[in-house]
């Protein structure tokens, strides 16, 4: 089967979670299928660009006048590589190709890479929709606008990481400190998570030699500066890695005794057996994840929408302290993380699960006009820049 993966980037750094997801899914599918990856928009993604199956970037805007150019550029790609399936990893890339004659012959799979549920009763349609969380799956299958057979829950999207070789480690871990690591975009999303982590570090610093390493690319200098000032005013032991190396922040996980993670960063930590915490909307501290509370955080994709139980919040600080003080309990947490990773996040399940999706849409043989009609409102908004 020929599978064309598409993802857009319209001005961002191109290093967010969905770029890593399309990168990893395409690598796994290439073990059995012919694969090409194409980026669309104002700039490509450094994550995707390093993919061995990356074909090209098509520089294109959002206006209706871009359709002729995009159709022409994609025609060059599909002249020899005739896709059996097109898998879009964001709504912008799907909006861009729905009206293109060159794309009419292939069914479209839309992978919704996490995020909150749609705010209204309707959302975009595709021949099949892949979601990463129970939260999103439940919204679609309980919505009369969608057929439950068209919705697939596939949380698996993370390659098991390996710690960076010692000879390549530029940043060194302080052996006398317990190091918490937070990898995230900075000065934009996830500010609550970082502020909650500051709260935790402040509390633990009263009794333990802790430090926080914050790794990420800066989205907004002013907002990031306010966060840095917050930590400085509180005299917190924080250091920052924000240069170009932060584009692959997971390479610094060798520094971590604990990771504060959201989405992919949480999952990557579990792949290394690092005890991991995640934010909760009803807690001022990130919460240590374990077998007992995992499902509640899994439902909301380890995001700031998480809601922790009263018991999890009550026991959180003492549980973290126990792991700091007791090597056996710390090792037990490491084993829990590895087990959860293998069951829910590892790439071993990708090929079989995505094959089921692709075989389904190929056999479905749905027409494109019906899909355009159901997405008409979103196409109008997209091409009008709204």
CATH architecture of the largest domain: 3-Layer(aba) Sandwich
- Helix and strand element order: EHEHEHEHEEHEEHEHEEHEEHHHHHH
**What is the helix tally?**
14
Give the CATH class of the largest domain: Alpha Beta
Q: What is the tally of beta strands?
A: 13
Taking the alpha carbons of the first and last residues, their distance comes to: 36 Å
Overall form: globular
**Percent range for β-strand residues:** 15-25%
CATH superfamily of the largest domain: Glycogen Phosphorylase B
Low-confidence stretches: none
**What is the count of structural domains?**
2
Rg from alpha-carbon coordinates: 22 Å
Strand order of the largest sheet: 3-2-1-4-5-6-7
Helix content: 25-40%
Question: Which class of secondary structure composition applies to the elements?
Answer: alpha/beta
| pLDDT averaged over residues | 94
If you consult CATH, what is the topology of the largest domain? Answer: Rossmann fold
Task: Give a short account of the largest sheet.
Answer: 7 strands, parallel
Task: Give a quick summary of the entry.
With 386 residues, the protein is α/β, with parallel strands linked by helices. It is 39% helix and 16% strand. It has 14 helices and 13 strands.
């Amino acid at each position: 089967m020929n599978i064309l993966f598409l993802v857009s980037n319209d001005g961002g750094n191109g290093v967010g979670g969905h770029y890593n997801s399309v990168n990893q899914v395409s690598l796994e599918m290439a073990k059995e299928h012919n694969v090409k990856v194409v980026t669309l928009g104002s700039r490509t993604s450094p994550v995707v660009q390093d993919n061995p199956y990356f074909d090209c970037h098509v520089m294109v805007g959002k206006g209706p006048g871009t359709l002729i150019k995009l159709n022409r550029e994609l025609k060059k790609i599909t002249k020899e590589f005739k896709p059996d399936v097109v898998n879009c990893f964001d709504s912008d890339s799907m909006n861009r190709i729905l009206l293109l004659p060159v794309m009419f012959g292939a069914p479209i799979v839309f992978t919704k890479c996490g995020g909150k549920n749609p705010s209204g009763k309707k959302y975009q349609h595709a021949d099949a929709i892949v979601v990463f969380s129970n939260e999103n799956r439940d919204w679609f299958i309980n919505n009369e606008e969608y057929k439950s057979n068209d919705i697939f829950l596939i949380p698996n999207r993370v390659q098991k990481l390996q710690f960076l070789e010692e000879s390549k480690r530029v940043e060194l871990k302080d052996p006398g400190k317990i190091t918490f690591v937070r990898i995230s975009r900075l000065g934009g999303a996830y500010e609550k998570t970082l502020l909650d982590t500051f709260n935790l570090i402040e509390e633990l610093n009263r009794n333990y030699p802790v430090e926080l390493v914050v790794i990420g690319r800066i989205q907004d200098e002013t907002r990031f500066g306010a966060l840095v000032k917050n930590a400085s005013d509180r005299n917190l032991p924080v250091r920052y890695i924000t240069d170009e190396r932060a584009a692959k922040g997971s390479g610094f996980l060798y520094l971590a005794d604990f990771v504060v993670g959201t989405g992919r960063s949480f999952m990557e930590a579990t792949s290394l057996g690092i005890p991991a915490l995640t934010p909760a909307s009803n807690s001022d501290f990130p919460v240590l994840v374990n077998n007992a509370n995992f499902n509640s955080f899994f439902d909301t994709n380890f995001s700031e929408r998480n809601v922790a139980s009263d018991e999890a919040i009550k026991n959180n600080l003492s549980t973290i302290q126990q792991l700091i003080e007791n090597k056996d309990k710390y090792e037990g947490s490491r084993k829990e993380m590895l087990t959860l990773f293998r069951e829910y996040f590892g790439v071993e399940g990708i090929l079989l699960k995505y094959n089921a999706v692709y075989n389904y849409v190929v056999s479905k043989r749905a027409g494109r006009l019906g899909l355009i009609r159901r997405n008409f409102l979103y196409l109008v908004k997209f091409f009008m820049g709204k």
